[in-house]
From TrEMBL:
Its EC number is 5.4.99.12. This is Pseudouridylate synthase 1 homolog. It comes from Pogonomyrmex barbatus. The gene is LOC105424727. Keywords: Isomerase, mRNA processing, Nucleus, tRNA processing. SUPFAM superfamilies: Pseudouridine synthase. The active site is at D137. Substrate binds at Y191.
Length: 435
């Protein structure tokens, strides 16, 4: 009897306890349903494995926008080398310079429009490790310029070219090693200088007065006739060509070129440069004028160095100064009065990466940087734009003839106060190394 009584009490207690628990669960479930934004503690009591439903559309949109923004920021960028060519006309050189029209400014603008860089990168190109292999001067063109920078994978040159003027073309883009720097890892640079051959015709010594003011009109009239014929009929003889090459050879090797640049003192280590080769590589006739191509290869060049070297060579071939003037320019501690040859004919031809190509070009991950696959497109651009521009400008503006008219004004000797060329006035010397 006692057992039955205890069993009944126990049963009644269990029944009421279970009933109360069920009522509590129902109450909590109803509360959650009525208040979907209840805090996470209540939501966890109901079902720890179910996520809280989101009914707010604005919150959904905000999360989507945040995700898209994160995706833009997380675009994988790899180091690339970009090969491009350009005509230097109307540009203040290669390097970006606020307020000036430069090649880099147009290139970076095109990259922005092509969605390959962000506005943050546009404002600070160092953020994408942007570097140029050579800093070309105002008016100087390039057949094969190289820049290194970080771009998204599979960047398309066709898209970039759509946003570039026709005088600037991207020929190719290649993946390079993580630490690749187009300037520091360049073994050498080759420049070409194209100029009419009449620039090397000997001067009439009876009419020559170095370091004196000259009447430009009279000089042009004198220069317009060579050996009784129009100057355009002049052709460089084999003897004159041999003499030219022998003089160019005097500039080869390692020398102190402080007199062939500006703002670099004689004892400055930067003045010592190594010229690998310097020669007349070819001649050609266009519009009945003979042009010659001077080709110089060196490890690196200073600002205006090539144009000053060519000005001195022209003066020697024309018998205005002696060959010994070159040696004097290397050794003297004074600054010599040497002019700049016109920028029109100067062109960056090759940027060499022989060591890089040998070390990484056959590792199965990277390519050589010889760009042979781009040659047809490069040659077409060179003939259509660069060469055409040089020849047409030479004919229409008589660039070389007018420059020769003022050549006697320079003494090619030591001078305390030197005249400042217009190009030197406009150049900003961020870095005196042309490279």
């Amino acid at each position: 009897m006692l057992y039955r009584t205890r069993h009944c009490i126990s049963s009644n207690f269990s029944f009421h306890w279970i009933k109360n628990q069920l009522e509590n669960i129902c109450h909590r479930t109803t509360s959650v349903a009525m208040h979907p934004t209840a805090d996470s503690d209540i939501n966890t009591d109901v079902n720890m494995h179910n996520k809280r439903p989101i009914d707010d559309d604005s919150e959904n949109k905000a999360k989507v926008q945040k995700t898209e923004s994160e995706m833009v920021q997380k675009v994988k960028r790899k180091n690339h080398a970009m090969l491009l060519g350009y005509v230097g006309k109307d540009y203040y050189g290669m390097q970006r310079n606020p307020g000036m029209k430069t090649i880099e400014e147009d290139l970076i603008t095109a990259l922005l429009k092509a969605d390959l860089i962000t506005m943050k990168h546009f404002d600070n190109i160092r953020a994408i490790n942007f570097q140029r292999a050579a800093r070309t001067d105002k008016g100087v063109s390039a057949v094969r310029q190289i820049v290194s920078l970080k771009l998204p994978e599979k960047a398309d040159k066709t898209v970039i070219n759509e946003f570039l003027p026709e005088v600037i073309r991207v020929f190719g883009i290649k993946r390079v090693t993580k630490g690749f720097n187009s300037k520091n890892q360049c073994d050498a640079r080759t420049y070409r200088y194209i100029i009419p051959s009449f620039a090397f015709a000997p001067e009439d010594q009876t009419l020559l007065k170095l370091g004196k003011e000259v009447n430009e009109d009279e000089r042009i009239k004198q220069l317009s006739i060579i050996d009784g014929k129009p100057y355009t009929d002049y052709r460089l003889s084999s003897e004159s060509l041999d003499k030219l090459n022998s003089i160019l050879k005097l500039l080869e090797g390692s020398h102190n070129f402080h007199n062939f640049t500006s703002k670099v003192r004689p004892l400055d280590p930067r003045a010592r440069r190594y010229i690998i080769s310097f020669q007349c590589s070819e001649t050609f006739v266009s519009n009945d004028i003979e042009f010659i191509v001077l080709e110089v290869k060196g490890q690196s060049f200073m600002l205006h160095q090539i144009r000053k070297m060519i000005a001195m060579v022209i003066a020697i071939v024309r018998n205005m100064i002696s060959e010994e003037t070159i040696e004097e320019a290397f050794k003297t501690m004074d600054k010599m009065d040497i002019p700049l040859a016109p920028s029109l004919g100067l062109c960056l031809c090759h940027v060499h990466y022989d060591h890089y190509s040998k070390r990484y070009g056959t590792d199965g991950l990277h390519e050589t940087l010889d760009w042979k696959e781009c040659e047809e497109e490069i040659e077409k651009f060179q003939k259509t734009y660069i060469l055409r521009h040089i020849v047409d400008t030479e004919i229409s503006e008589q660039t070389t003839l007018k420059w020769l008219a003022g050549l006697p004004f320079y003494s090619f000797s030591n001078k305390d106060v030197l005249p400042v060329d217009d190009d030197e006035k406009q150049e900003t010397m961020h870095d005196d190394i042309q490279m």
